[in-house]
Design a protein that fits this description.
Layout (H helix, E strand, L loop, with lengths): L4 H10 L6 H9 L12 H12 L6 H10 L8 H12 L1 H9 L20 H17 L3 H9 L9 H14 L3 H14 L5 H15 L6 H16 L5 H39 L25 H6 L2 H12 L4 H16 L4
Helix pairs in contact: 1-2, 2-7, 3-5, 4-5, 5-6, 5-7, 7-8, 7-9, 8-9, 9-10, 9-11, 10-11, 12-13, 12-16
Amino acid sequence: MSRLALPSLLLFGLLLVGGDRLGLSLGQAADPTFGIIKGPTFEQARDLTFEYLKSTSVDVESLKKIESLWKADEDRTVLERVAESIALVDPEARALLNSTRSPETPASVPEYFKDTSKSAFVRANIGLYYAKQLVGRRVNDEALEVLRGIRPEQVVDPAAYYFHRAVAENRLVLKEEGLQSIDRLLNSVADVPERYTVVAGLMKQEMQAWKDKDLGYVARRMEEVEGRLENARGGPKTQAKQKEIIELLDKEIEELEAQCQAMMAQSSNAQKSSQPLPDSRIMGGAGPGNVDKKKLLKSLDVWGKLPEKEKVKALEAIKRDLPPYYQEAIEEYLKELARGTQK
């Protein structure tokens, strides 16, 4: 018997099992130590969902709606059909899925996903659907927390699990974790959609080129903070990330100014050596030559109160020799600081 055939046979055996064992058996069926992770077929996912429904008090009207969700011509993914079917009989799941469309999305992992009295099949697939919606809204911290509590072998779409986990890790600048998720998506999951493989390949190429604490890192952090502010996540965690950005920009400005000063000094010395002074002229002094380095971006308030000329000077120092993407990202972020949107 081939390794790839094993998960399918075990999943078929799940149809004889009900209750919480349903989800646990699904997890065991595709243990990656025994081969490639392969999600259930459309028919198996449908049967698993209806097997779960037997343990609920589903009414006739809801059952009709669920049956219509599973019609072959219905334009929904298997994961959407499973999640929406569960939501029709589980008010808590329905409230959670509705919350992903609202700014009031919980800022931590909902207790629903920690409730072991619920079927593991239900918690895993509602969790994946929930996290997928959050990733689409750039609520990546909370999405990743939910995904970390799920076994990919328990969901009906393991490719979606690894893809959205990789996207969240990419946006949170978690390089090693993101590359690991991409590797598992591309090498440990069967039947990965082409759209996932193409985007994952691009993410992998981008992340492998990342350098620690450079201006590219700063730009990625800015994008992360922008997403958090967009989703009303302006608390201590966001403020700590903003502080890191300011400190990195401050350091970059100092380094760029130092480089500029060194180049000017070298140019000045070269001119002096090529034009010797007359013997009769006495050289004058102008002090020790120490430069008073200004920390232009030490705090949000400082940037907002700087004279316009000083702002221009800081921007020019940052933008010198940088790619257009980083220039635009930094300039836009500094404008946001001046407008006070991070409060």
